[in-house]
Amino acid sequence: MTTTPKKTHIQMLNEVNYNSIEMAPFRVVSVGSGNWGTCVAKIMAENTRENPLLFNQEVKMWVYEEEFEGRKLTDIINEDHVNAKYLPGIKLPDNLKAVPDLLEAVKDCNIIIFNIPHQFLEGILKQLKGNIHPKARAISCLKGLRVDENDVELLSDIITKELGIHCGCLAGANLAIEVANQKFSETTIAYPLPSDYVAGDLDDTVLYTLFHRPYFHVHIVEDISGVSIAGALKNIVAIGVGFVDGLQWGENAKASIMRRGLLEMIKFGELFKPDSKVATFCQESAGVADLFTTCTGGRNFKLAYRMAQTGKSANEIEEEMLNGQSAQGLITAKEIHELVKNRRLTDEFPLFETIYQILFHGVSIGILPYMLENKWSVSKPNYSG
Amino acid sequence: MTTTPKKTHIQMLNEVNYNSIEMAPFRVVSVGSGNWGTCVAKIMAENTRENPLLFNQEVKMWVYEEEFEGRKLTDIINEDHVNAKYLPGIKLPDNLKAVPDLLEAVKDCNIIIFNIPHQFLEGILKQLKGNIHPKARAISCLKGLRVDENDVELLSDIITKELGIHCGCLAGANLAIEVANQKFSETTIAYPLPSDYVAGDLDDTVLYTLFHRPYFHVHIVEDISGVSIAGALKNIVAIGVGFVDGLQWGENAKASIMRRGLLEMIKFGELFKPDSKVATFCQESAGVADLFTTCTGGRNFKLAYRMAQTGKSANEIEEEMLNGQSAQGLITAKEIHELVKNRRLTDEFPLFETIYQILFHGVSIGILPYMLENKWSVSKPNYSG
C-alpha cells in the first residue's frame, strides 16, 4: 500500500502567486446561509457597520434560492431582515444582503467565509474556481476533515488547493441558536499569517474586528490542524458519551469518556497532523469547550443514547430519528477506523475503535470499560505521569 | 508584607528519617468513613482480598462512633457489612473492619488513607502524631488546599509535615454513590516516589493494585500540586457555571466558563505551585474530567444556579438550601481572592475575581462577559496562539 505524499499547508501556500495585497476597506461575503451561516453573517454585518474604515459596510451572503411561504428566501431576508427558513425570529442587520447568484455574491470580495454543509463544498469550489478575487483570503466555518483510508486532509487545505487562496478556520462551542440570540460564547479562529503577508493584509486584528462581539469572544491561534481535528473527532466522542449516558452509568462515566476522547483526539493529531498543538485541544473553545457542548446533546449524542436505551442498531435509530440524515459522528467513526486500521494504529485509539465496533458490528456497549482498561497503557505518552 | 518561605515537598521529605522500608504484605487503614471514605475502603478491601501476597487481607476503617437506629455504627458495619448511615444500600466486603478507636485503627498499618472532611484534619493529625507506624506512607483523598492571604499549602504537605510521612493524593471525577454502585469511572493518584524509596516500598504498582478495579480505573502521576489545585479551584468554576446556567445562557456559555476556569486553574498552578503540570489539569481525571462532573451538579453549582434564578444573595440561598453547611466553593472563592489580591495578581484571574465579586459584593452576574472580555489578553501566555 503506497500513499501519495500530501503537500503541507505551507507548501501549498508557497505555490500561490500573490502580488501586493488589497487593502482596507475589506469586502466580506458569506458563502452559505443555513442557521450557522446566517448567524456568522449577522455577526460580521454588526461589526462591518461599526468599523467603516476597515470594512465595506455591506456583507453579502450567498443564499441557495428557494421558496418559503410563497416568497423567495432572498427577498424575505432583504426585505424583512430575517432568515425565516433557517434562523426564524432573529432580526438581521439591514447591511446584510442576500444574493442568490454565487458568482455575483463573491464578486470583488477579498474575505470569503465558507459556511455550507460539508457535502456541498466540492461543487461550490468548482463553481468558484477562477471566479474569485485573486487576492482573496478565506475562513472556513465547515466542521471536519476529509478522511480516506490513507490520509487526512483539512477542509481549509482543500479550499486553498482548489482556489489558490489562503484559508483559516473558525470553530468553537457555538450552538448557532444561542449565538444568534446573543447569549455569551467564545470561539476560536485558526489563522496563521500567509507567507506572502504584507502590512494591511488580513491579520489577527482584522479578524478580531470582524468577528468579536461583546457576546461572542474571539481568540485567534495558528493551529488549523488542531481546530479541524477537534471539530471532526468530537462527534465520535459524543457517541461514546451518549452510550454510557443511555445506560445510565452516571456523570463519572460521561466525564471518563470525554477525557479519553480528548486524549485520543490529541493522539490523532500527533500521529496524522504533527503540527497540531496539544493546547488547542485542551485549552481552546474549539477544543475542550466544543467537546463539552457536543457531548451534552446534539444528533450524535442522541443517536447513541437511544441505541443504548433501546438496544436497537445505529441504522434503526437513524431511520427513526433523523429522517434519512446521517449523524456525522457515525460517518467519522467509520472513516477513522479505516484509516487507523490501514496504518496499523488501531491500538492507539481504543475508545474510537470500540465505538466503531459498537456502531457497526453489534458489539455490546458494556465492553467499553474493559476495552479502555486493556489498552490503558497504550496512550501513556499523552499522559503527564 | 513579608511571607515566610515555605518548604517544598521534597525539602520536607528529606527531613524525614526513614530506615529500611517495611515490605509486603502491606497493612491498610482508611481514616474516615463518610460516603467517599467507605467507598474507597470498599475498593481497597476488594483488592486486598484478591492480592494476599501483597496486602494483609483485612482493611481497617476508622469510624467516628455514633448511634444509628439504636445500634453502634461500627457494629452495623462489622455485622451487616453496610454503612447504613453514610452509604446505605451498598454491600461492603467482610474483610473491611470498622474500628471506633483511631489509634487502634492505624496501629501497625503502613498505608494510611486519609478520607475525612477538611475541617477535621488538624485534630486527627494531632491525635495521630507519634502514634503511627514509623515507616507508613499516606494517601490523602481530601479535596483542596489550605489557603491564607500569603500562600497556599497542599493538604498532603500538611500531613507530611505533621506526621513525618510521605503522602500522595487521590482525586478524580468520582461521585461517591456512582463508584459505590460500581459504575465505570476513572481516578488520578498523585504519588511521586519518596527520596528514601527502596525496592519493595509503596510504588505505582502497589498503588495500582490497591485501587484499580474493572469499574474504577487508576492513573498514576507525580503531580500532587496540580491534582490538589484542581480539586480546590473546580468548586469556584462550578459556581460560575451555575450562574450562567441559572440565567439560561445556554450550553455555549457554560462551556466558556469551564474553559476559562480551566485556564485560571492552570495559571494559579503556574504562579503559586510552579511544579504543577498543565497536563494534569487538561488531561487527567482529577483535572478536566472532575471539572466536568463538578460543573454539572453538586452543591456549588446549585447554590449559584439558585442565586441567578432568584436574585437572592449567597447567604440567603445557603440558609435555604444547605442547612447551615457552607458550599466549599464560596469559601475557596474568598480565600483565593484574598491571596491573589495580597499578591497583586487579581488581574490574572478575571473569572475567579468576578465570581467573588458576585458572591460577596452584590455585583450583577450579567457583568461576566464584560469582565472576561476586558481581561481577554491577560491570560494569553496560557493560550496556544
From TrEMBL, chains A, B:
<dbReference type="Pfam" id="PF07479">
    <property type="entry name" value="NAD_Gly3P_dh_C"/>
</dbReference>
<dbReference type="GO" id="GO:0042803">
    <property type="term" value="F:protein homodimerization activity"/>
</dbReference>
<comment type="similarity">
    <text>Belongs to the NAD-dependent glycerol-3-phosphate dehydrogenase family.</text>
</comment>
<dbReference type="InterPro" id="IPR017751">
    <property type="entry name" value="G3P_DH_NAD-dep_euk"/>
</dbReference>
<feature type="binding site">
    <location>
        <position position="120"/>
    </location>
    <ligand>
        <name>NAD(+)</name>
    </ligand>
</feature>
<feature type="domain" description="Glycerol-3-phosphate dehydrogenase NAD-dependent N-terminal">
    <location>
        <begin position="28"/>
        <end position="191"/>
    </location>
</feature>
<dbReference type="GO" id="GO:0005634">
    <property type="term" value="C:nucleus"/>
</dbReference>
<feature type="binding site">
    <location>
        <position position="143"/>
    </location>
    <ligand>
        <name>substrate</name>
    </ligand>
</feature>
<dbReference type="InterPro" id="IPR006109">
    <property type="entry name" value="G3P_DH_NAD-dep_C"/>
</dbReference>
<feature type="binding site">
    <location>
        <begin position="32"/>
        <end position="37"/>
    </location>
    <ligand>
        <name>NAD(+)</name>
    </ligand>
</feature>
<feature type="binding site">
    <location>
        <position position="176"/>
    </location>
    <ligand>
        <name>NAD(+)</name>
    </ligand>
</feature>
<feature type="binding site">
    <location>
        <begin position="299"/>
        <end position="300"/>
    </location>
    <ligand>
        <name>substrate</name>
    </ligand>
</feature>
<dbReference type="InterPro" id="IPR013328">
    <property type="entry name" value="6PGD_dom2"/>
</dbReference>
<dbReference type="InterPro" id="IPR008927">
    <property type="entry name" value="6-PGluconate_DH-like_C_sf"/>
</dbReference>
<dbReference type="InterPro" id="IPR011128">
    <property type="entry name" value="G3P_DH_NAD-dep_N"/>
</dbReference>
<dbReference type="InterPro" id="IPR036291">
    <property type="entry name" value="NAD(P)-bd_dom_sf"/>
</dbReference>
<dbReference type="GO" id="GO:0051287">
    <property type="term" value="F:NAD binding"/>
</dbReference>
<dbReference type="Pfam" id="PF01210">
    <property type="entry name" value="NAD_Gly3P_dh_N"/>
</dbReference>
<feature type="binding site">
    <location>
        <position position="328"/>
    </location>
    <ligand>
        <name>NAD(+)</name>
    </ligand>
</feature>
<keyword id="KW-0560">Oxidoreductase</keyword>
<keyword id="KW-0520">NAD</keyword>
<dbReference type="InterPro" id="IPR006168">
    <property type="entry name" value="G3P_DH_NAD-dep"/>
</dbReference>
<feature type="domain" description="Glycerol-3-phosphate dehydrogenase NAD-dependent C-terminal">
    <location>
        <begin position="223"/>
        <end position="365"/>
    </location>
</feature>
<dbReference type="GO" id="GO:0046168">
    <property type="term" value="P:glycerol-3-phosphate catabolic process"/>
</dbReference>
<feature type="active site" description="Proton acceptor">
    <location>
        <position position="234"/>
    </location>
</feature>
<dbReference type="GO" id="GO:0141152">
    <property type="term" value="F:glycerol-3-phosphate dehydrogenase (NAD+) activity"/>
</dbReference>
<dbReference type="GO" id="GO:0005829">
    <property type="term" value="C:cytosol"/>
</dbReference>
<dbReference type="GO" id="GO:0005975">
    <property type="term" value="P:carbohydrate metabolic process"/>
</dbReference>
<protein>
    <recommendedName>
        <fullName>Glycerol-3-phosphate dehydrogenase [NAD(+)]</fullName>
        <ecNumber>1.1.1.8</ecNumber>
    </recommendedName>
</protein>
<feature type="binding site">
    <location>
        <position position="299"/>
    </location>
    <ligand>
        <name>NAD(+)</name>
    </ligand>
</feature>
